[in-house]
Amino acid sequence: MDEIKTRQHFRYIDYFKALLMLLVIITHTNFANQAIKPWIYAFLMPAFFFASGMLIKNQPVANVRECGLLMWKKFTALMFPYFLWALIYASLTDRNLILIIYGSHRSLLKAGTLTSLWFFPVLFEAMTLFFLAQMIIKEKLNLPVKAFLCVVSFCIAASLPHFKYGYPWCFDVSFAAFGFLVMGNILHPFIQNFNKNVESSKRVLSIWFVIALVTLAVTIIFKFIYPSFGVALMAEARYGNFLLFLLAGFIETAFVLSVSILLDRFIPKCESCKFDILAFIGQNTLCILVVHKPFIKVFKAIFRHIHVPDAIALIVTCVVTSIVSCLLAVFINHFFPVMVGKSPYKTREIK
Length: 351
Description:
Layout: H1 11-28, H2 37-41, H3 44-55, H4 64-89, H5 94-102, H6 105-111, H7 119-137, H8 143-159, H9 171-197, H10 201-225, H11 242-266, H12 277-283, H13 285-291, H14 293-305, H15 310-335, H16 344-349
Helix pairs in contact: 1-3, 1-11, 1-12, 3-9, 3-11, 4-7, 5-6, 7-9, 8-9, 10-11, 14-15
């Protein structure tokens, strides 16, 4: 999620990840979201891997040593928080430790820890595959190579056998994640060039607005024709019809991304503004991911005794949970940045 430092001129990616994180909070509010949860699940995690691919550098990796250094850097940024937060949420027993080390979605559930942590090893594995491809090619990955990698990874993901308790570190899921990561890496240069080369801001806005409307309309039609296409759980490699899963993931990712670009265009850039809430959420998705669930449980207990429409319960829970999670993210970033894979020295330099 926020494992890769967002470049300042990619504010729309911050917004993209922020919208996705808010959707995560909505999907985790299980007691009030049954009407929309399956729909969001159809594309939510693919979109996160797509966003990571937009930010990963496509650069030559000279040798095994350089590849190893890149892998180690991502391991410390992702896997250290994974083990730390898994142990924070779980009771410390030999059984739970083994289940956490195994690292599938089912094993995390059996350990009684935070099941959302499955994302960390999968992202690490997907990025490792990208680094290995760069090392083998020894130059920037061109479009045909990336397209080939994308197709191969999706074919592997669709053909791997399914195990009840999942693969260690959700290894089977990493191939689908790698495909979406590469897809994001393929499309991001085109998005950048389009935004730069179109002279008229009004024209850019109108084009992205049309894209948003078209993808939204296609999504609604698609949902109506295939009402079960949203029944997917990427964490356990349960995709339903894999081709429909890919199509839904791509279309709905395009919708959320186009909305993010529109927000970037509409919201004025102000150098004197000290806080951009959407950008902050987008830059701290990892931290918000690991802290938000306990607050949802509190609201679940509250609304068990206070009967209100699900829509109101959902809005109140998500808004307050997002605000409190952001405040916790500020605290953790300042005092304990290593808990979310950040260097304490770099954190202190940010003003």
